[in-house]
Amino acid sequence: MNKAICVWLTLALPAARAQQLPPIRPIGPIERVSAEPLWSATTAVALNDGRVYVNDAATRRVLLFDSTLSHARAVADSTSATAKAYGTQSGTLIAFRGDSALFVDPASRSMLVLGPDGKIDRVIAMPKTDAGPLLQFNLAEGVPGFDARGRLISLMSAVGPRAPQANPGTTVFQAPDSALLVGFDLISRTIDTIGGVRTSFPRMTFVRDANGNVTSITGTPVLLPVVDSWAIEHDGTVVAVRGRDFHVDRLGADGQWHSGPKLPFSWEHLSNDAKTALIDSAAAAMKARRDSMAAGLLHEPTPPPPPGAGALRGRSGGAGSSAAPPPALIDGRPALADLPDYKPAFRPAAARADVDGNLWVKTTALDHGQPVYDIVSAAGVLIDRVKLPPFRTIAGFGPGVVYLAVVDPDKVVHLERAAIKRKS
To answer: Are strands 328-331 and 214-220 parallel, antiparallel or unpaired?
Structure first.
């Protein structure tokens, strides 16, 4: 094969892969819209008869909607007059075995089993993690769920946070770029590590003066992190979507991870000019946010220092050391080398599993300003690409349907049920 043919193949193969992408289509028609006004609909768990549990985390309520979404009743709320306490913090709603849901209440460190009748059937203690880092039930890191063995799968930090050193000078802290996927057995109360995923955290720089007081904290963000995403499919299979080359790994019954084929994607190369523009835009946005926060604080009384604030101020025990001013908070500017040469295929927590055996990955591709979801089969093959109507996010799935949270012009949130495909 001569040099000219090799060059042609090098240029042609990426184009051929791009041509294999299925056409982008809109989601099916909206079938139902809830009448109950919500502040949020972070998660929806559908029951077999079409009813659906919804976590309105913004108002700390769990509601059970009927199959038409016309009526809802509170299963757990934050009203002091009721006995159905939601808790003082936002919780997480997870699909549970059979026709039930599990509500994780981080405030009480307990998990409530919500039965099909809309009642709390029993309470389960959360995994004990006193001797190690906490399990993360934060949807920003992925949607927890149960695998085929009945273990609760979630994310756990590989290494816990460390306090800055007390010595004068500059200390740079970079959190690990990976986290552990773990399984919690509800019966044996044991936690097993089943794999790992790539994560990303900002770089923190602490500066201390000669007295050991922290004078400034600089946070340098990661603008385009190349991360992994994970999910639990409807049959309990744990999957991880790898961001470096965009393919899906599946955890088999043998306890081993099995890699699927690379998924086709139109990778966007980032020149140095494009990287500089992204950095400038992010810096301007951070400054505007910081200025807005500062303006708001000028009109509010100064709150008391949070517990442990003295550690940041580096009290040395000397006279007047407790009166050291709080550290300056500085927005760091990423370097060109901090950005990847190609725009990542997806951002954190991009993967969601439907109940029909497919995996949805919210990509960074846009179609008329709307994010494109790549739908991947159980074989790891891209089979469909869809986009949602504007102002919608995915809350959950039912057979052949997707539940969406939509914000109306009055800033009120409603739950919608839409068909995944249009009927022919």
So the answer is: parallel
